[in-house]
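User: Please predict the structure of the protein below. I'd like the answer in structure-token form so I can feed it into my own downstream comparison script.

Assistant: Understood. Taking the following sequence of 339 residues as input:
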Amino acid sequence: MRKWLLRADVLMVLASAPAYVATREALSVFAPQDLTPLRYLASAAVLGLYLVVRRQGLRLTRRDLPRMLAVALCGYGGYGLLLNFGQATVPAGTTSLLLNISPVFAFVLGYFILVERTTLRGYLGMGVAVLGVVVITLGDSTATGFEGNTLLIVAAALLLSIFLIVQQPLLARVPPVEVVFWGCLVGGLATLPTARFEALPAHVPASVWLALVVLVVLGTAVAYSLWNVTLARTSVAEGGSLLLVIPIFSVLLGWVLLGEVPSLGAMVGGAAALMGVTMLSTATHARAQAGPGLLTGAIPIIAALPLVSVLTGSIAITTPPLKEAEDAPSTAHAKADQG
């Protein structure tokens, strides 16, 4: 039991679940465009210190710079902005449920690019997952925070799938922690021009500072590093299936810590989405692959080598329209009504 708990993929799940709750808490004071660079640049500082203490030299080469740039812009800068703008009103548990449809996007990309195919069960699972997202999106607007923000989370899931496609070859040549360091550094710098930093440090409650520390250290530096270690060392079937557990912890933490009671639509739609993703993932894993791609569990890995040159030259950050920042609440409890 102890050995199982020390596995990188299990620790990644435990470290990732609080990130959505911490983000919601931090967004009660910090604007979405402020939190994104703050999160990633602070995480880059933490990881940089770790690399210095470990005396680990940087191994990123010039040949990998275009791919690393695409990873940082897509999986950190673009993904972080969409996620934060979406989570401004979408509850933590609902966010984690919506992000788990990324394997569906990965399969669609693999279908057209790598001739990925699945069984009838897989196609049915994809339909069930999409239906679950529709139920969440069109559910109780008060509970899900739908005002377009739910669709931003879905867009973040799309970027997540593209990010994983482009990143995977890097893990064979660059240490997992170093990939996260460069992703946080470049992604944070790329989003810095969008920030306004209107919140005064003296007016930030202690609970928000604590949430920010949890988000930076646990939800980003630790969780992302463990995720990359899992991708590089653990079989995708083992590591991927554990990602489906994250929404359970996120829903419970959001309920207990933030008072975000999940709506019936979020629970039914989330259950359908997770069931659909499981059907698609297991069906694709069981079928012999037609191309070099592989999609199993909840971590899609597609060796899209023919696409890399296109992606690294065309991926750009698409930011949603920036909303006027509301006055920072005097206490962190005011955000409970946003969900």
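That's the full token string. Residues 7-54+63-316 form one domain.
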